[in-house]
Amino acid sequence: MVDHAFADLSLAALYDSLNPWGAGDEFYLGLLREAGAVLDIGCGTGRLLRRARAEGHQGRLTGLDPAAAMLVRARAARPDVEWVLGDVRVRRWDGEFDLVVMTGHAFQELLTDEEIRVCLRAARAALADGGRFVFETRNPDARAWERWTPDRVHEVTAGDGTPVRVWHEVRGDGLDRGLVRFTETYASEDWAAPRVCHSVLRFLDAPALAGFLAEAGLTVEAQYGDWRRGPVTPGAAEIITVAQPA
């Protein structure tokens, strides 16, 4: 059993296979193309910054992540990007970035009000004049966790050719005071036993997000319900927020 799946090197290697490049990545990449200096909080394997650099982005690209196993892969792929191990509680920047992003629903891993406040204050501090902070969370009204069931198995292949099955199972009754607790199980016939990650995500609606942003000195410039920039509706899967200094 592991506390966080992607703290394990072998599981970190599966991340990009489990989360193939898609519309959300294209959305963020479009923003990166227009920004000179970019900070990616919770960058994971760094594929967004790696793609931007591979395209020819000449500005400063900085990825921050607390999982060393993820950054091992990031550094191996693009040593010409600044990869930083840690989080916003210990690594801070002051007015250095035109764009700060949190992708892959990383914002939902902030479970307490204080964690959210610390992160938003750090993002605000890192922004240069005219900069923007962009992130997404799953819309709680869409109830995505109801589809995280063991019968929905994802099959991927590890770098060494090992087939791996992955599934999720929600613990308890689903949403409990804004939190959803679930397990993520990785299994292969080539492994002695499955590897299980216990995770918790927080779901916030748009008004709650706006309140936290205002506390941090940020204001909502735009919010979208999907990667095509559609409106946030009860059925929209996402709440994609573009914020700027107030």
The figure for the number of domains is: 2
Largest sheet: 7 strands, mixed
Distance between the termini: 44 Å
Structural class: alpha/beta
Number of helices: 7
- CATH topology heading of the largest domain: Rossmann fold
Please give the radius of gyration in angstroms: 18 Å
Give the % helix: 25-40%
H-E string:
HHHEHEHEEHEEEEEHEE
- Count of DSSP strands: 11
User: What average pLDDT do the residues reach?
Assistant: 94
At the first level of CATH, the class of the largest domain is: Alpha Beta
CATH evolutionary superfamily of the largest domain: Vaccinia Virus protein VP39
Indicate the low-confidence ranges by residue numbers. 1-5
Give a description of the structure.
The structure is a single chain. The protein is α/β, with parallel strands linked by helices and 246 residues long. It folds into 2 domains: 5-138 and 203-245, Rossmann fold; 141-202. 25% of the residues lie in helices and 34% in strands. It has helices at 9-12, 15-18, 23-33, 47-55, 68-77, 113-126, 206-215, and strands at residues 37-41, 60-65, 82-85, 97-102, 127-138, 154-157, 163-176, 179-187, 195-202, 218-224, 238-245. The strands form 2 sheets. A 7-stranded mixed sheet has the order 3-2-1-4-5-11-10, sandwiched between helices. A 4-stranded antiparallel sheet has the order 6-7-8-9, with no helix packed on it. α6 links the parallel β4 and β5 (127-138). α3 (23-33) packs across α4 (47-55). It is globular.
